[in-house]
Design a protein that fits this description.
With 225 residues, the chain is α/β, with parallel strands linked by helices. The chain has one domain: Uracil-DNA glycosylase-like domain (Uracil-DNA Glycosylase, subunit E). Helices cover 39% and strands 11% of the residues. It contains ten helices and six strands. β5 and β6 form a beta hairpin. α1 runs antiparallel to α5. The termini are far apart. About 9% of the residues have low confidence. Bound molecules: uracil.
Length: 225
């Protein structure tokens, strides 16, 4: 009888296909594809928007300033990057960090759906508007629906939990407060107690300045709010 492939094996096989992908124009301009990183059996999965400059260079999601904030938010709830899985709606960087286009999102969607089906997390935490609208199947904007779990169409038993994109919180202190408060709800959703004591809430000043490796301001990934 054929052996059932492990989640790790299935992700490796998917990685091979994504690395070869030329289904949309982004295949021509990317440096590296960025499938995702973390545990193949994670209970918590994050879905952002698309790789930016640093992610495209390294082939790893959320390694820039937004990623540093994601690490800090995970620390708040007693988790590290190794314990979760992080992916994006798009697996290739849009030139100049422009918004993902509808055709790119639809073309790339099967890869994300496959990742979710392989990992089977308890909770998919969508970061910002693009992943939230895609996976909820609804047009509701993140500022209206963040912090409230909902069912995810097509993935029975997996909760969808929309929060602001970390990049949006870096630019707007009130979004940072909301993002921290929403993260604090995650342990209960995952069925585990909040770590004690809670990390001090951050000041209202953003801790990070978004810069490219060359020290120039990186074009903002828009439509995050
Ligand atoms: N923003 C995203 O949405 N994804 C990344 O990987 C990095 C920044």
């Amino acid at each position: 009888m054929d052996k059932v492939p492990s989640a790790d094996d299935s992700l490796k096989e998917l990685l091979g296909r994504v690395q070869e992908c030329q289904l949309c124009e982004l295949g021509k301009t990317r440096t590296n594809t960025v499938l995702g990183s973390g545990r193949a059996d994670a209970r918590l999965m994050f879905v952002g928007e698309a790789p930016g400059y640093h992610e495209d260079q390294q082939g790893v999601p959320f390694v820039g300033q937004a990623g540093k904030l994601l690490d800090k938010l995970l620390g708040r709830i007693g988790l590290t990057r190794d314990e979760v899985y992080v992916a994006n709606v798009l697996k290739c960087r849009p030139p100049d960090n422009r918004d993902p286009q509808a055709l790119e999102i639809e073309t790339c969607r099967p890869y994300l759906e496959e990742q979710i089906s392989i990992i089977k997390p308890l909770v998919v935490c969508t970061l910002g508007n693009f992943s939230t609208k895609l996976l909820s199947g609804k047009p509701d904007g993140i500022s209206r629906i963040h912090g409230r779990p909902q069912e995810m169409p097509g993935h029975q038993g997996i909760a969808l939990f929309p929060v602001y994109h970390p990049a949006a919180a870096l630019y707007t202190p009130s979004n940072m407060k909301a993002l921290e408060a929403d993260f604090d709800l995650l342990p209960a959703l995952l069925g585990q107690p909040l770590p004690q004591p809670l990390v001090e809430p951050s000041s209202s000043e953003p801790d990070f300045v978004v810069e490219t490796a060359e020290g120039q301001a990186e074009p903002e990934q828009l439509d995050l709010f």
